[in-house]
Task: structure prediction
Amino acid sequence: MTIRSTGQSWALDIALAQGGFDALHPEAKGTMEQLGHDHTDFDKVFALVKSGAMLPKAWATVAAQAEERAAHHEKNGFPRTASDLYERASVMWGRAQYSIFDAADPRKAALRKRTNHCVERLGALRDGRVRRVVLDFEGKEIFALLHLPAGAVQNAPAVILGPGMDMIKEDYIHAAERYYTSRGMVALSIEGPGQGESRARGLTVDLGNYERAISRYVDYLALLPEVDPARIGMFGISMSGYWGSRAAATDRRLAALAAFEAVTGDFHTIFERAQPTFKNNYMYMAGYEDEDAFDRDLAADMPLGDLVEQITCPVLFGIGEFDELTPLDQALASFERVRAPKELRVYEDEFHPLGGVAAEIFRFGAEWLQRALDGELAEPGRDVRHYVHRDGRTTDGTAHPAWWQGTKRS
Result:
């Protein structure tokens, strides 16, 4: 636990008690629905929560209800209904274990076991189109879920679905089916070093091993008969927009990157000004208990800086005007450094979760990636910018907020 987290835990508890999840992440329910959470489940959970300590129990309580109904429908011969409920249960079991920052805590392992059971059942009920993947990686293991289209498919484009730091591979089951496999694309939702099962098995994140894990996943996809190895891209949100940017700069096999809410700034904002849970979680992911050592050994070297100049594939970035983890002027400055064909969308009045436009960005990101992987959007010098107004209008040619009155921050 960081010093700031210990001192401010009471404030986070008050925010949860008074305003629920929205007090911490405005409009995030829209994003959570894209990650497989039904809004009724979400409301049930937060009706039970008055402090952060109550979150694991609340998530587990409602997850058990969904799993019980899933088993009922499976027993009575309604496989699609059952699989949908198993999906809802799996993301809630996964969310329950997130708030436990101790890989050795037996409750974390028990909650993971329930998550795995639900994924196993929904995979079986969906004719094996959701498959568990375990890969050797630098003496340990990394974990993913492979999502395949219905019917036979060969040499199809594939997209790696990268989770944010507080996400797991199961969070993409819903989006993989809705936006990728339904379009004939293969999807691989991943956990990198420091996340989910990878962290539980002792694999922590350092400065460079996450992008090496992405390369390991590219190795795996490139050998599948269902996948065209020349058409592998990545969709990332939050920290996976950062990790995806690092991977695109170091692995030329990534043919396109769509990154929303990517942390592309100074990292002082996310670790010292934003909610202290972000730094708590990243220290857990990296295996640090000494905050000073974490700041010195890892955090100080994390900003992307000029690394983005090495990206050669088409990239799409989208960010909220008031993203609390990356100040907009820093996101714009990072985008300016990109030399590859690029596109940027800034969403008016949106915060980090991009909850008000979540359905749009998940759909648009998938469609953009499909076009990019089909060879479009790669013309040299491509530089497309949009400022997306809250009222539905879009200003083309610039991503600077209208109220900046044409000025640019240096």
Summary: DSSP finds 15 helices and ten strands in the chain. The chain has a mean pLDDT of 93. The longest strand covers residues 227-237.
